[in-house]
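Section 3.1: Structural characterization of target chains.
Under the original work plan, the team committed to producing a structural model for every single-chain target entering the pipeline before any wet-lab resources were allocated. The record below documents one such target. The sequence was received from the expression subgroup and is listed exactly as submitted; it comprises 76 residues.
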Amino acid sequence: MFKSNDAQAIRQAVVDGIGVGFLLQHEVADNSELVELFPPLAEWKVTHWLVTHGDLHRSAKVQAFLQAVRAKTKCE
């Protein structure tokens, strides 16, 4: 099994045929040897990211902020 947090290492492993993985479409557009297993799902599309430290993710402040963002984006 191959695991990495390095996107470049993951891309190279997939290109080298070590296994399957998630790659950006524009990164592999020039490689005709790669095969798309399934198209991106609509629910994978995100317009916002909230990055927090793991210890803070469930904090009241972060959760309140997420609630406010969710409420605002549902209205628009």
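Residues 46-76 form one domain.
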